[in-house]
Design goal:
This is ArnR1-like winged helix-turn-helix domain-containing protein. The chain has 106 residues and is of the alpha+beta class. Helix content is 47%, strand content 17%. It has helices spanning 5-16, 24-27, 39-52, 76-86, 97-105; strands spanning 21-23, 56-62, 67-74. It has a three-stranded antiparallel sheet.
Length: 106
């Protein structure tokens, strides 16, 4: 599944939250230091696309014309994807001296 860096940021922030729910104001930190025009619109569209993929659930209110998303929550399908994306730890190339000594004895 192809996700943008903003979408990965949204999923990661939801996963790190205690109850897996975050407000939209937390997501504005993604553009910290560089505020593009319409940053809130970009965040809203990314959140809506994640909702369509059923990775998050949006909370807010609906008018006759559009949804206003106030907070987002991670779904079980989203949790599984987050574990796949961020759950694998990188193995570092540390040298274990005990193993080398043991290999030399054989």
């Amino acid at each position: 599944m192809n996700l943008s860096t903003l979408q990965k940021y949204i999923l990661k922030q939801c996963a790190q939250a205690k109850d897996k729910t975050i407000s939209k104001s937390v997501l504005e930190n993604f553009y910290r230091g560089k505020k593009p025009a319409g940053a809130i619109n970009i965040i809203t569209k990314s959140a809506e696309r994640l909702i369509k993929k059923k990775l998050i659930v949006g909370g807010g209110w609906k008018t006759a014309r559009k949804w206003f998303i106030k907070q987002v929550k991670l779904t079980p399908k989203g949790r599984k994807l987050v574990r796949e994306l961020f759950g694998v730890q990188q193995k570092l190339p540390f040298k274990n001296t005990k193993t080398r000594k043991h290999e030399n004895k054989n």
